[in-house]
């Protein structure tokens, strides 16, 4: 009986890990860095998380969790609601559909794949925000945000692989 | 028992398969619906946002504390780097300020005398609420800050937010423990301002870049780089005379204003309570005034 309980707890912990890690990343990206100019170009850390789990373990992050994460991003940020919710869902789906392509590929290929997807995500965010506000938003900040997001992919992915090894043993 | 379970499975299995198949599409539609709701009924969205932000703000507050050390490090490094230049500049500034102190003392004495002559009744001095910046929200598409003071501390929608140097923005949303500041650089920020020396009126419009622009200047007005921009107090949004920034360039990009405050380096702000309702009157304020009117008539 006791073993069943712990087995259940273990399963629950596995299922919750990717979600919680993404929540933590979302919170981190909203903490003021106090570095000059940094606030406007904070990397989209949660996007890295979505891509990673979409490619490697989509079974651990269901679509409704992705929806909730996007909603959380929209609520924390001050821009229009629903924008990042939609983008998160799209990014996750594309990552999940293309996952076969990334299997067995070197880090550089995966990184390149992520860069394309991040550009696509920030592009959509820019278009929707421009539409919602009725004017073309300057591309400067989104471009820098893209660069920092791509730059942060390496370290974050490293942490995720470590978590996968320690917490979520490959079935 | 087993049969019952089998029946259940028989009924729910197709439903489950159907929901799994359409769950993704449903969520995408829901995201679009949210976007539309945000446009049609911003108050509903604001309500949700305020509650969630309130719940999360203590966590972000705790997370942001260790970063204060990092901020100090950045400040120290930049201080050391330009210590000599800073010293020279400060000496010049000190000489100028000493002169101004002398002038101010003279004027104060004169002012006092004149007030006595006129039996002038001064305005109530404004109260302010100090708050710590806990969140740098918005990213590339919105310029907002989260602070750890809310309705409980007396923060109300529309109030002006400043630091010692000048205007930061205004309160956009208020929760009970946290509030969101719309920075003057945000795309949605419009602030009635005046150029201090020439008294030319204009509107300071944010454009999601570091330097907001001046728009709607009266025709024929002349502006030049270095002119100081202060709030005009028109539209009742802000008290007049709060320093905002100075004109940095008047080129093809329009008249750009360099703000006196750099929001990315702001750790503490002052929320001013001037007793003004602002261009965004809070519903509770309207209710308060209504009730006070009725109580007066009774």
For the biggest sheet of chain B, the summary is: 6 strands, antiparallel, barrel
Q: Determine the number of helices of chain B (DSSP H or I, runs of at least 4 residues).
A: 4
CATH topology of chain A, which one?
Answer: Arp2/3 complex 21 kDa subunit ARPC3
The CATH topology of the largest domain in chain B comes to Thrombin, subunit H
Which descriptor suits the 3D outline of chain B?
elongated
- Written as H for each helix and E for each strand, in order along the chain, the element string of chain A is HHHHHHH
CATH superfamily of the largest domain in chain B: Rod shape-determining protein MreC, domain 1
Task: Evaluate the radius of gyration of chain A.
Answer: 17 Å
Query: Would you tell me the overall average pLDDT of chain A?
Result: 85
Helix count from the secondary structure assignment of chain A: 7
**Strand elements of chain A, count:** 0
Shape of chain A: globular
Portion of residues within helices of chain A? over 70%
CATH class type of the largest domain in chain B: Mainly Beta
- In angstroms, what separates the terminal alpha carbons of chain A? 23 Å
Low-confidence stretches of chain B: 281-298
How many structurally independent domains of chain A?
1
What can you see in these coordinates?
Chain A is 74% helix and 0% strand. Chain A is built from seven helices and no strands. Chain A has 171 residues and is mostly helical. Chain A has a single domain, classed as Arp2/3 complex 21 kDa subunit ARPC3, CATH 1.10.1760. By secondary structure, chain B is of the alpha+beta class. Chain B has three domains: 39 residues; 36 residues; 152 residues, Thrombin, subunit H (Beta Barrel). Chain B is built from four helices and twelve strands. In chain B, strands 1-2-5-4-3-12 form a six-stranded antiparallel barrel. In chain B, helix 1 crosses helix 2. Chain B starts with a helix and ends with a helix. Classes of the chains: A mainly alpha (171), B alpha+beta (298). Chains A and B meet through helix 3, helix 4, helix 6 and helix 7 of A and helix 1, helix 2, strand 1 and strand 2 of B.
